[in-house]
Amino acid sequence: MPAANVAAQVRTSLASLKASDLQDAQIMEVLKLAHQLTDTMKLFFSSLDQSICQEFNYIADYISRTRDEIAALRPNDIKTQRIPTAGQELEAVVGDTERATETIMSEAEAVLCDEEADYDAYRANVEARMMTIIEACSFQDLAGQRVSKVVTSLRHVENRVSRFAEVMGVRDADQVVEETEEEKRAREQLLNGPAIGGPETSQDDIDAMFSDAAPVSDLDQDSIDSLFD
Amino acid sequence: MAVDMTMPILVVDDYKTMIRIIRNLLKQIGFENVDEAADGQEAYAKMQENKYGLVISDWNMEPMTGYELLQKVRADESMKATPFIMVTAESKTENVVAAKRAGVNNYIVKPFNAGTLKSKMSAVLGDF
Fold it and tell me: Which residue ranges run through the membrane (chain B) (predicted)?
């Protein structure tokens, strides 16, 4: 039963008692106090109902806004279109690269193995194979376009997720995320992958670490620090 | 002592193209007796059956990495003396230090050329 109804019912009962012509002064005093109490309670419960109502309205608004923002994310579009398309584009890049590499290497190996004694025939053969190599290099243009499409898709997803996080006031959870088996193996096996923009440690620095003059165990902190610059 | 140019060399990489590149570079340098394996596990099995004069291995492979292969080779009495060169895109100092501590003889970062491969092989095997 709503709080306001309870208060009204108590008030009605009190009024009924007062109207029954009671003569005891003490009972009348108690009824007076009870009346004041129910008045106070009525105010309290009505304010309570109002704040609960406001809370529910806020939650309803929040859910509605969240639903709108999720719709704006277009998760189905991301899941069924953008991510699969990006995956297909990357697979195509790998395929194009493999085919081009195969062609280039085969032609280069054929030139290296060419034992033609006649100069003109040798030259014609080399020129023909060089042209095939040049043609095969056209994969780079296609690969560039495909990678651009993938980058565009990733930017689209990034923008949508960022906007969603911003509007919803999402913050990263504080708790430590549990390491997966794959991540654990990568960490233990030091699988960092190629660095962007060239090797993190140059071949010259590696050579220095393998030279007799500077065995790894004897590297001082400055030498190690310089490797991280 | 002169380097035996006919010695068998084991090239370990999960990319066929990289194996082919290394094969060609080795051929250019003068080594034609080249065997290959697609990961550490296959390489270790081959090393148990054959004796190689040199192992040239990538790092990042599954199910057994080049780093694990190196550790297994160095822990196995029958093959612990086999020269081992790591050829990898893993270029963090921690990788180089870990490989050195595990007993690698030399370390080449990808991409590399025939000159680099030859100079590191010379550093490990002696001039040829």
Answer: none
